[in-house]
């Protein structure tokens, strides 16, 4: 997409607006697929939580993706998008037995991450195959809030509890058909990932009738020029060799599974905002835009850096700006950032806005959530309308005084 394409989207649909490039998603999927072409059976389940628009789910499924879901609502969205139940894995955390049973009734693959629910589910439904999520006690991830495989994490069944896990399986007669882990997001060191994989392989040996091993995801994408990213090609080469070796020793061709979310959609997304005010203080030049952390919370929540481009004046002389929002709390997108000279009314594009942008958006300050647009085959397609005041009050029930 060119700057002119993006400006045309902003003109047609208004600001702020999320724009997703379909060709970028397809390129990322093909890159993953190529990296693991040496494995006979590979399955990529897209992590729906990253971006759950139905049109995006349909698009990714058309490439060959299954869906990784973490709530019964995401399961229903995936089914609504036309994804067969057999291609959906349900990997929640801390949900009730009733929610797991509701998902199982829909026919999706169940993935359980605690012994209490595992025993209850196995006792009531020993005939339903279950995957178990293991916590390898390996610290991986770019931020403590997205590192989920360490010893203090709430996620997964500790590797030290595997003997108890095996006892539950034996007592209930349930069938464990998969082993799963997810160490965290923004993985840089593939050796740490491979180390955790060895722990998963050792655990898998304890189960005699597996169909798949799921290594989660967390592959890092670049957020700025020269940024480090996960070397997916090197990981593919090394893990392929080790996985094929394991299958040979196991005596069965298992499926190698991953759950990429950010990797597939992050770089495909741009978030367009308009500059309301240029405010000069004694120490800072603020570019105040028509959005805030109600639409893009990652910089505030994860200290994430999103490259910001002035697409109204891309070739202008660079100056230093702090880009801030209109929320009545600190909502700083960028501090002292070099950006082409900005004037009021200019449109700024936030890069890497495909993942965890709209999906984490809110109506804080009673602001509307923006529209979503899919750029497909050289054209813009509205895939979610901008909210209105009617949407804001639709589910409120006025108390009559």
From TrEMBL:
Q: Does the keyword Amino-acid biosynthesis apply?
A: yes
Name the positions where substrate binds.
Answer: 298, 302, 329, 356
Record-annotated membrane-spanning stretches: none
InterPro entries in the record? Ala_racemase/Decarboxylase_C, DAP_deCOOHase_LysA, De-COase2_N, De-COase2_pyr-phos_BS, Orn/DAP/Arg_de-COase, PLP-binding_barrel
What is the main EC category here?
lyase
Instruction: Quote the subunit structure annotation.
Output: Homodimer.
Q: What is this protein called?
A: Diaminopimelate decarboxylase
What are the required cofactors?
Answer: pyridoxal 5'-phosphate
């Amino acid at each position: 997409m060119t700057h002119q394409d993006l400006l045309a989207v902003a003109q047609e649909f208004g600001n702020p607006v999320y724009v997703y490039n379909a060709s970028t998603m397809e390129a990322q999927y093909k890159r993953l697929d190529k990296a693991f072409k040496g494995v006979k059976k590979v399955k990529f389940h897209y992590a729906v939580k990253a971006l759950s628009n139905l049109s995006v789910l349909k698009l990714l499924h058309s490439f060959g993706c299954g869906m990784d879901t973490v709530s019964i609502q995401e399961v229903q969205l995936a089914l609504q998008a036309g994804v067969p139940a057999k291609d959906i894995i349900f990997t929640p955390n801390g949900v009730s037995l009733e929610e797991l049973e509701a998902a199982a009734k829909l026919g999706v693959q169940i993935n359980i991450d605690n012994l209490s629910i595992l025993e209850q589910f196995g006792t009531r439904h020993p005939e339903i195959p279950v995957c178990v999520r293991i916590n390898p006690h390996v610290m991986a991830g770019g931020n403590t809030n997205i590192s989920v495989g360490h010893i203090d994490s709430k996620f997964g069944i500790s590797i030290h509890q595997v003997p108890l896990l095996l006892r539950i399986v034996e007592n209930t007669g349930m069938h464990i058909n998969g082993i799963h882990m997810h160490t965290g997001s923004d993985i840089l060191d593939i050796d740490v990932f491979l180390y955790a994989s060895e722990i998963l392989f050792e655990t898998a040996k304890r189960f005699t009738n597996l169909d798949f091993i799921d290594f989660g995801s967390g592959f890092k994408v670049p957020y700025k020029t020269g940024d480090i990213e996960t070397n997916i090609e090197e990981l593919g080469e090394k893990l392929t060799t080790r996985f094929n070796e394991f299958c040979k020793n196991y005596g069965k061709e298992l499926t190698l599974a991953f759950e990429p979310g950010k990797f597939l959609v992050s770089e495909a997304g741009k978030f367009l905002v308009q500059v309301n005010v240029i405010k000069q203080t004694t120490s800072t030049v603020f570019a105040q835009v028509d959005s805030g952390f109600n639409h893009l919370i990652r910089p505030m929540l994860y200290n994430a850096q999103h490259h910001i481009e002035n697409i109204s004046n891309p070739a202008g002389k660079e100056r230093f700006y702090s880009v801030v929002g209109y929320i009545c709390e600190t909502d700083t997108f960028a501090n002292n950032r070099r950006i082409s000279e900005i004037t009021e009314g200019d449109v700024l594009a936030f890069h890497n806005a495909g993942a965890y942008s709209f999906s984490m958006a809110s109506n804080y300050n009673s602001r509307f959530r923006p529209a979503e647009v899919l750029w497909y085959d050289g054209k813009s397609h509205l895939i979610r309308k901008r909210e209105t005041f009617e949407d804001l009050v639709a589910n409120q029930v006025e108390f009559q005084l």
